Amino acid sequence: MIQVTGFVRRDAVFHMQRNGLRIGNGQIMDSLIYVAFGLVLVLSLATHLRHHAKLDREAEEATERGKLHSSGPKAQHPKIDLTWCIGCGACVTVCPEGDVLAVIAGKAAIVNGHKCIGHSLCADVCPVGAIEIVMAAASMSADMPALSKEFETSVANMFIVGELGGLALIKNAINQGRDCVDIIVDRMPALRKPGLSGVADVAIVGSGPAGLSASLRAIEKGLSYVTLESEEFGGTVAKYPRQKLVMTSPVQFPTHGKFKKLELTKEELMEFWQKASKKAGLKVNTQEKVEHVQLEPDGSFTITTTKGPHRALSVVLAIGARGSPRKLDIPGEDQPKVMYSLIEADHYVDANILVVGGGDSAVEAAMGLAYQKGNKVILSYRKDSFSRLKERNTQRVQECANSGKLTLMFNSGPKEIKEKSVIMEVSGQVKEIPNDWVWVFAGGTPPNAFLKKIGVQLGRVDMSGAARAAAAEAVAAGVS
Fold first, then answer.
1. Phi first, then psi: what are they for 203, rounded to 5°?
2. For the chain, which terminus, N or C, has the lower number of CB atoms within 10 Å?
């Protein structure tokens, strides 16, 4: 019994030791799991914090860049309701123009408003509806036509659509041209008065994206119309460089329906417009410049052009904002080798070329010319860096310069253009460089003189019914 009892005791001790070892191993394993989980959590948190620190630095850098343009947004831009904003950053990511928006202190903010051209993707993607697209404040748009929410000017039944009204982008112009004609359709019963004969329902001035959209919508809605174009079919788009990308958003196009292609070239867009216009039977009076628009006592308009007068019950101005190209006003600028738009870059080879300007048009022209055989291209800009380019152009121009195909000359400008050279001032120093061709992209002179002449008020003024009636009376009386 004693032996058995001893055996049992020894066996019990053995089992206790073995179980204790198991318990100890289990506790160790549990501890290791907790430690590993903690390390993963700490590493994830550290990565998260580093990512947000990077975003904060980028936001601060973007804000500093934006301070160089403290005048703020020039036209259409996002308005952020901070009460609803959750700081998710979706609006920042989706913007194709780069650092227009940033998340600062947990809320979305405009840091480079001058770069906004009205894509409105930020408003579309916001999960809580905290963003709406608005126009610039009155102080920012004193040189723009005063428009109502229905695109109407201070002259009753005279409308402005597209870029001239403060909107960039072909998509926006198409939408406005279409919607504007819908407004005119609603007003037609009141506009069509007895005794008015030989008067079109609407006169559309311009055949760019807004003008073509308005014209096709007029056909679609059964309105009588006349479309007047001072140059060629397609307006400003027809002058774009070859292969320029011109549309990045789907749009509802009159007589065609939803146009879903996200990106296409100038040539593709022009071909589409030609086909849509031919199918609809659209007639555009090209090479017919409008010289004056007069509101008559009976409420109709007389539109005087270089080829004669037209009558209409309403007028849609879709003439763009660039007007005449702005010149440098320097000696030698009147030479044939100086140009203000580029269409066929491949026509210029084995040449010394100077491109002047810091906007997208200048950069795209310079890059297009730089890739042609034997060209030596200099892009001159008066500031020390580009600040208002589309994001893709910012990247592409730097790549082009890094490859040696293009020379960037900041803090510079031409002082005199000679037959075979250009006198340049670069960072305060004067130098002469060989030159065969010069392109100047210094913007354009807005058609404000024409607008004032026909009675359109500039600046965001009170567009109440009383103000509009007073303006209409002044125009009818011949007061500019």
1. -110, 125
2. N
Structure tokens at 105: 């202190």
Please compute, for residue 476, the number of CA atoms within 13 A of its CA located in the half-sphere on the CB side: 13
CA distances from 38 to 31, 33, 50, 463 (A): 10, 8, 18, 64
Give the chain's length: 480
Residue that has been written with the tokens 């994206």 in this structure? 209
Same fold: 47-140 with 325-444: no
85/174 Cα distance (integer angstroms):
30
325-444, superfamily in CATH? FAD/NAD(P)-binding domain (3.50.50.60)
- Count of other CB atoms within 10 angstroms of residue 241: 18
Token pair, residue 28, equals: 């160790």
Instruction: Name the residue type at position 96.
Output: P
Nearest to 173 by CA among 253, 93, 97: 253
Percent of the chain with pLDDT over 90: 37
CATH of span 47-140 = 3.30.70.20
Maximal C-alpha separation, the chain: 134
Q: Which CATH class is domain 158-323+446-476?
A: alpha beta
Please report, for the chain, the start and end positions of each structural domain, with discontinuous segments joined by +: 47-140, 158-323+446-476, 325-444
- Measure the CA–CA gap between 294 and 303, rounded to whole angstroms: 6
How many other CB atoms are found less than 10 A from the CB of residue 361? 23
For residue 163, the 8-state DSSP code is: G
Over residues 260-309, the pLDDT tens digits come to 776 777 788 888 888 989 999 999 999 999 999 999 999 999 999 999 99
Q: Which helix (H) or strand (E) holds 370?
A: helix 360-370
Model's pTM, two decimal places? 0.63
